[in-house]
Write a structure and sequence with these properties.
The structure holds 2 protein chains of 2 kinds. Chain A has 8 helices and no strands. Chain A is mostly helical. In chain A, helix 2 packs across helix 5, helix 3 packs antiparallel against helix 8 and helix 6 runs antiparallel to helix 7. Chain A starts with a helix and ends with a helix. Chain B is 55% helix and 15% strand. Chain B has a 3-stranded antiparallel β-sheet. In chain B, a hairpin with a 2-residue loop joins strand 2 and strand 3. The longest helix of chain B is centred in the last third of the chain and has 22 residues. Classes of the chains: A mainly alpha, B alpha+beta. Chains A and B meet through helix 2 of A and helix 3, strand 1, helix 4 and helix 6 of B.
């Protein structure tokens, strides 16, 4: 305010300065949005898809529910590591701050549904509702992708929607199909959409 | 109307101190947006840019063309099946110009602020 009222200031200066501040803000916002656009790494998703196929294979051979769950938990841990590393590399290559604008926005909307999923997994396993766990994973992961990808390229929320659809389908199918459906959804959707993102949106 | 030629006096010291010696080519909003968006992405398609900058086909292509003519962005056209696909990337010149522009804006803010506000 003092800038505006300072009488010694030439009249043009405050507006020039205002324009400069405005310009910097515009550049920053554009960069953040543009980075949010492709913060998701396509090649990372292809790798995550491959992990999911492997996990489905391993889980299907496990005789106990416990063994099956261990296979999927291991796959989830590997996937988180892979995708974090891939996003970090992509952001670094594009000179974008990962945990500032884009990546932060993604994480903030991605994490709540995933946290809810972890809590419900525990509750359902404790109460012996094993059959409900995989469909819930699919649906909540889909929700996380949809909300996290709301500011990203349009294919990302679309992928989330397909995960939710896969979850709904798996609710209606018999329990023995679970691993194959999890493998198909986590594997195929990640690989397909990963390739699309890698080809169209630089990595 | 926007002036399209790069301004004289943009080089050297003058650009850092003279507020009127702005690079008008990227001073315009859409063009500044294109250059900024490309600075943080390897490539962006025409449609990516259009969505990102919330503008129209016509507007974007006019401004992108001006940047292309100035050598600030490079553009490759290809076909994906039958759909034409235009990809933009920033050139080394474009990146330098944007950095200069940013420095210029910062200098402008500092210059007008410092004498009066501690």
């Amino acid at each position: 305010m003092s800038r505006r009222t300072a009488s010694a200031e030439p009249a043009a200066v405050p507006s020039l300065q205002g324009r400069a501040i405005d310009d910097l803000r515009f550049i920053r916002e554009t960069m953040e949005n543009a980075a949010a656009f492709t913060a998701v790494s396509g090649w990372g998703m292809v790798a995550v898809g491959a992990v999911a196929f492997a996990a489905a294979g391993v889980a299907a051979t496990q005789p106990t529910v416990r063994g099956q769950l261990v296979a999927w938990f291991a796959a989830a841990a590997a996937s988180i590591t892979i995708s974090s590393y891939a996003s970090w590399r992509k952001a670094k290559r594009a000179n974008a701050p990962l945990f500032h604008g884009a990546g932060r926005k993604f994480l903030l909307s991605f994490l709540p549904p995933m946290t809810v999923g972890a809590i419900l997994t525990y509750v359902l396993l404790e109460s012996g509702n094993f059959a409900l766990v995989p469909p819930m994973w699919l649906m909540l992961y889909g929700t996380a992708i949809m909300t996290g990808g709301a500011f990203s390229v349009r294919v990302v929320p679309l992928m989330g929607l397909l995960f939710i659809a896969a979850g709904v389908v798996s609710l209606m199918l018999p329990a023995w199909t679970t691993h194959w459906l999890l493998g198909a959804a986590f594997g195929a959707l990640h690989v397909i959409f990963g390739l699309i993102i890698a080809r169209r949106h630089g990595g | 109307m926007e002036r399209t030629e790069p301004l004289r006096g943009v080089r050297g010291h003058a650009a850092d101190s003279d507020p009127l010696a702005l690079d008008r080519l990227i001073h315009e909003r859409i063009r500044l947006g294109i250059v900024s968006a490309l600075a943080v992405n390897d490539t962006l398609s025409f449609n990516d840019l259009k969505t990102l900058l919330r503008t129209t086909d016509g507007n974007l292509s006019v401004h992108a063309r001006k940047l292309e003519d100035a050598g600030y962005v490079a553009c490759t056209k290809s076909f994906e099946g039958r759909v034409p696909r235009t990809e933009y990337r920033i050139t080394a010149t474009g990146r330098r110009v944007l950095e200069k522009y940013l420095a210029h804006m910062e200098a402008l803010i500092r210059a007008t602020r410092e004498p009066r506000e501690r």
